[in-house]
Design a protein that fits this description.
The chain is an alpha+beta fold and about 150 residues long. The chain has helices spanning about 5-10, 15-70, and strands spanning about 85-90, 100-105, 115-120, 140-149. Helix content is about 40%, strand content about 20%. It has a 4-stranded antiparallel beta sheet, covered by helices on one side. The protein is rod-shaped, with a radius of gyration of 30 Å.
Length: about 150
């Protein structure tokens, strides 16, 4: 039986330690890449929901302006009295998860009073269906718009 030379015997096992080290480093890089990818996807999803909330709030403003222009007595935003209306976005659309609260308040002391229209859109409401209380949820999105007409 032949004996292994002394210089080879001292270096036995170095390849195994190097391979284990490389596997640990590559596994760490893989975990880091997955966590960065997950955070990026969540951020992108919130960005899309923010744009949808903006469009829902804008739809609420357009609805309030339409009601104001119609000027039907007793209707919302007719300029005579303050009113608040809660609107659900239509089902089957990308805005279906949003609720819009439109508040109209007439200005006082003017012959033809302008109306202040505030539209708040959110994807989660409180028990009363209002968007004013932010839930402790990272997916909550809310946008507020205001015009004077």
């Amino acid at each position: 039986m032949k004996r292994m030379p002394l210089h080879l015997a001292r270096s036995a096992g170095v390849g195994l330690i190097t391979a284990i080290f490389l596997l640990v480093v590559l596994a760490g890089l893989g975990v880091a890449m997955v966590s960065v990818f997950t955070a990026q996807q969540a951020s992108s999803s919130l960005d899309v929901d923010g744009a949808r909330a903006y469009q829902a709030a804008r739809a609420g403003i357009e609805w309030g302006l339409y009601q104001r222009r119609r000027g039907v007595a007793g209707a919302a935003c007719n300029g005579a009295a303050a009113s608040t209306t809660v609107l659900r976005m239509p089902t089957g659309t990308t805005l279906q998860n949003f609720t819009v609260v439109v508040s109209c308040t007439p200005a006082s002391g003017v012959t033809e009073p302008p109306t202040n229209i505030v539209s708040v859109a959110c994807n989660m409401t409180d028990a009363n269906g209002v968007c004013e209380i932010a839930p402790a949820n990272a997916a909550y999105v809310r946008r507020r718009m205001e015009v004077e007409a």
